[in-house]
Amino acid sequence: MISLKGISKTYGGVRALKDVDLAVPGGSIYGIIGKSGAGKSTLLRIMSLLEAPDGGTIHYRDERVDTLRGGELLERRRKMGMIFQNFNLFASRNAAGNIAYPLEIAGMHHRQIEKRVDELLEMVDIRDKRKARLRELSGGQKQRVAIARALAAEPEILFCDEATSALDPQTTRSILSLIRELHDRLRFTVVLITHQMEVIRAICDEVAVLSEGSAAETGTVESVFETPRTGAARELLYVK
After folding, report:
1. What's the CA gap between 84 and 34, in Å, rounded?
2. Could you tell me if 203 and 44 are in contact, meaning their C-beta atoms sit under 8 angstroms apart?
3. What is the rounded CA–CA span in Å between residue 58 and residue 139?
4. Among residues 11, 75, 138, 162, which is most buried (max CB within 10 A)?
5. DSSP code at position 224
6. How far is the first Cα of the chain from the last one, in angstroms, to the nearest whole number?
7. Degrees, nearest 5: CA angle 20-22-26
8. What span, in angstroms and rounded, lies between the C-alpha atoms of 204 and 218?
9. Which residue, 135, 112, 138, 109, is CA-closest to 125?
């Protein structure tokens, strides 16, 4: 489980997050949705320990992690994977080289890296693209490379930052199906932020609606979609 209590963050006098409380069940696919400027990306960066909150606490299971520094923080980050809207891949490397990068940083032997890269290419169904340069890959194939790279070190948590926003609807469905398949097989926790309601509906177990830096509503996808309790949730769902 990921537990957030009273998380706040201010930039230049503007409160991006205001006393956010969230509980993400371990092994779930948890969605965070809201309009632009609602604080989604800030919350994800704090949850993934890329930024420290100004106030509040973060626990992974029973371990407090917002106070980690130095080597302990780096070690914890190695247990997480990240995928992004713009893929964040290295243009100077081919598909296999991009997937290998975190394993090289971790000091894995090159023969082990080769084996692991082959496993991951097979896992995301692009084994034939092993030597392909980024310019030779479609958007969906680039995201599959990014997913494989994120899973290279066998993370406990996969964070997805608008991972399908740059993709067409058909490719979005295939990427969401892949994430669900990998989640069901490997049993990691997924935290996904998006502004796309159809993404939440398609893949998530639970959802938090973020509005003006606060968690306006949380619950199962079914309950929030069918009987939204707050104006923020109804507005996102176009319910009057």
Report:
1. 17
2. no
3. 34
4. 162
5. H
6. 34
7. 155
8. 12
9. 138
pLDDT in tens, the chain (240 residues): 999 999 999 999 899 999 999 999 999 999 999 988 899 999 999 999 999 999 999 999 999 999 999 999 999 998 999 999 889 999 999 999 999 999 999 999 999 999 999 999 999 999 999 999 999 999 999 999 999 999 999 999 999 999 998 899 999 999 999 999 999 999 999 999 998 889 999 999 999 999 999 999 999 999 999 999 998 888 887 754
Token pair for 212: 């003006």
Domains and CATH numbers, the chain: 2-79+157-237 (3.40.50.300), 90-154 (no CATH)
What are the backbone angles phi and psi of residue 14, rounded to the nearest 5°? -100, 125
C-alpha 180/C-alpha 187 separation (Å) is: 10
Rounded to whole angstroms, the Cα distance separating 68 from 24 reads: 20
Query: For residue 48, which amino acid is it?
Result: S
Instruction: Fill in the amino acid letter for 140.
Output: G
Q: Is the pTM of this model over 0.90?
A: yes
Instruction: Give the integer Cα–Cα distance in Å for 137 and 123.
Output: 17
